[in-house]
Amino acid sequence: MRASKSLQERQNELRALLATREGRNELEGLASRYYAAGGRVRVEGTSLITYILVYEREQGLIHN
Predict the structure, then answer these.
(1) Contact 31, 48 (CB under 8 A)
(2) d(Cα 39, Cα 15) in Å, to the nearest integer?
(3) Are 50 and 34 in contact (CB under 8 A)?
(4) Phi and psi dihedrals of 5, rounded to 5?
(5) Long-range CB contacts (< 8 A, 24+ apart) of 19-27?
(6) pTM of the model
(7) What DSSP element (H or E) covers 5?
(8) What pLDDT is recorded for position 51?
(9) I want to staple 61 with a disulfide (CB 3.0 to 4.6 A). Which of 9, 37, 49, 56 is the partner?
(10) What angle do CA 46, 49, 51 make, to 5 degrees?
(11) CA triple 24-27-19, angle to 5 deg
(12) CA separation, residue 15 to residues 2, 18, 24, 39, 47 (Å)
């Protein structure tokens, strides 16, 4: 299991991925895997990063 990261640390990592097409594709893939694992639908118009952060926080992968 991965070590828990701070919210700020993880948010910065995810924002950096938005800078490239490959990074955005990686984020979309991650969100798809999280949806498959948890079944929580991403509400239209919500941030991809927020969706990922909420899931990871619920799973104990990030902390304040």
Answers:
(1) yes
(2) 24
(3) no
(4) -110, 160
(5) 27/52
(6) 0.87
(7) strand 5-6
(8) 94
(9) 56
(10) 60
(11) 35
(12) 20, 5, 9, 24, 11
Q: How far apart are CA 34 and CA 41, in angstroms?
A: 10
Burial of 48 (0-12, 13-18, 19+ CB in 10 A): middle
What amino acid is encoded at 57 in this protein? Answer: R
pLDDT tens digit string along 20-60? Answer: 999 999 999 999 999 999 878 888 888 999 999 999 999 99
pLDDT confidence of residue 1: 42
Task: Give the mean model confidence (pLDDT) for residues 3-14.
Answer: 92
* Residue 55: other Cβ atoms inside 10 A: 20
